[in-house]
Amino acid sequence: MSLSQFQAANEERRRVYHEADVVVVGAGVFGCAVAFALAKQGRSVLLLERWLKEPDRIVGELLQPGGVSALEKLGLAHCTEDIDAIPVHGYEVIYYGQGVNIPYPPNAGAPPTKGSQEYTNEKGGRPEGRAFHHGRFISQLRRACASQANITIVETEVTDTITSEHKPQVLGVKSRTLNPKTGEKEEDYYFGQLTIIADGYASKFRKQYITKQPIVKSKFYALELIDCPLPAPFHGTVILGDASPVLLYQIGTHETRALIDIPENLPAASVKNGGVRGYLRNVVLPTLPQQMQPSFEAALEDGKIPRSMPNSFLPPSTQMEKGVVVLGDAMNMRHPLTGGGMTVAFNDVVLLSDLLSPERIPDLGDTVAIKQAMKDFHWQRKGLSSIINILSMALYSLFAANDRQLSALKKGCFAYFQRGGNCIDGPSSLLAGIIRQPLVLVYHFFAVAVLSIWLVIQDTVGGFLGLWKLPLAVEESIRVFYKACVVIFPFIFSEVRT
Ligand SMILES: Cc1cc2nc3c(=O)[nH]c(=O)nc-3n(C[C@H](O)[C@H](O)[C@H](O)COP(=O)(O)OP(=O)(O)OC[C@H]3O[C@@H](n4cnc5c(N)ncnc54)[C@H](O)[C@@H]3O)c2cc1C
Ligand SMILES: *[C@@H]1O[C@H](CO)[C@@H](O)[C@H](O)[C@H]1NC(C)=O
């Protein structure tokens, strides 16, 4: 049988008999990328998505340089083209009206240097991120999958997994597909040697296969600003003050996304105080740079309650079930403050497709080999994912400071950035998904803690005449240091467990 006959036979097996090597549930960020990567290796893939219409969501709009680089490795770099994407060169952090610029580090592209061994980009120059409308990007990814001869995409809502009667092994999935003739949804079945579930943050299957469940402490409310002049064009903007953090980035020629973090049960956003809209107008608006205020106000004018999404934390876990793996947001989530979700997803796909390659695992039905590969995956992905997970959660704790010690750490963090040099190159490389050494994160975090303590001592003692206040300063320093540990260690522990 020639290759084209073989591929045609596989296509028929998928279309008529609903059988493939791999069944992927969810054609989102992770699902599309993994389907594409495995198909390129010659696997026959069924990609199942409940809704193939272009998504309209407020998530996944900024891709860090480390994610762009992973997309290039997957052969999907063209998906950020022709969607009016905006280049991102770094961040601008504004603390009580004062700004500091944090560009992605120079010379982090090829050739690889110490600390960036695995980071390369096509142009070999300064790292660049991309911001875009999520739906347009997803449509591009789906188009890339649709034009892949080894993938068949089906619009169907997966409702359950199918388990073998003889042994505890998943054989495929059950779903509901709309019959266009009758207008009714009909039961449907799809079979694969391996089922990859990537059904996103509200995963239907997580409870069944993962012991950990997400924790939600705040939500991001979203506005779309039109022609908003950013203080630093082509940079993500983070606004810090008394309120919880606000994030802004341009996602199209005329559109800028504003994401406003609102902790659960925040009194300032209670109904009595005018609800979310009252909070945005009375508390958030005045903290924005003057030039941005008119477009922010205009976006509020439509009178609707802005759209929102929960900001979840879900530490990663290994999986032991046979024939099925749960990945993407369904398996691991972090606060979207640092825009790292898609970067984790694409790097996961690069690693996973390497571990599952036909050279290593000729037959995806080999559950012993898959189990070992998933164990390796769990530990090997940490070089990048644990940094992005811990950084986002720790930074959010500081930026949303709600006590004196956290506020001291937040102030120290900003002062750290103001020092420039390695104090911004290090953190920005971590955030960008360029550095893959978790210890570098721990180093910078504690450097921030030490600087915060120094500032606390200075503020308390003042000068020579204030020396009598030294014991007070020491006491507060210990509290700040203790707080820094309480902030970061639980997130570190959540990464070293299975
Ligand atoms: C407010 C917010 C902002 C964010 N901003 C960023 C950002 O700027 N940058 C970034 O990198 N990350 C960001 N993220 C994170 C990012 O969105 C996720 O990490 C990423 O989308 C995860 O990809 P996924 O494929 O796991 O899930 P998704 O992209 O959500 O894909 C899941 C897919 O599965 C489909 N599906 C679900 N259930 C079924 C079913 N039963 N049957 C069939 N199909 C199904 C869905 O329709 C969807 O297409 C943000 C997250 C939030 C909450
Ligand atoms: C599709 O799979 C075949 C093997 O079945 C492989 O030879 C081919 O390279 C794959 N096609 C693409 C476009 O990657």
TrEMBL record:
Belongs to the squalene monooxygenase family. One of its GO terms (biological process) is ergosterol biosynthetic process. The chain crosses the membrane at residues 20-39, 383-401, 439-457, 477-496. It catalyses: squalene + reduced [NADPH--hemoprotein reductase] + O2 = (S)-2,3-epoxysqualene + oxidized [NADPH--hemoprotein reductase] + H2O + H(+). Residues 21-50 form the FAD dependent oxidoreductase domain. Its main location: endoplasmic reticulum. Its EC number is 1.14.14.17. Its cofactor is FAD. GO terms for cellular component: endoplasmic reticulum membrane. SUPFAM superfamilies: FAD/NAD(P)-binding domain (SSF51905). Keywords: Endoplasmic reticulum, FAD, Flavoprotein, Lipid biosynthesis, Lipid metabolism, Membrane, Microsome, Oxidoreductase, Steroid biosynthesis, Steroid metabolism, Transmembrane, Transmembrane helix. One of its GO terms (molecular function) is squalene monooxygenase activity. It is a multi-pass membrane protein. It is found in: Endoplasmic reticulum membrane; Microsome membrane. This is Squalene monooxygenase.
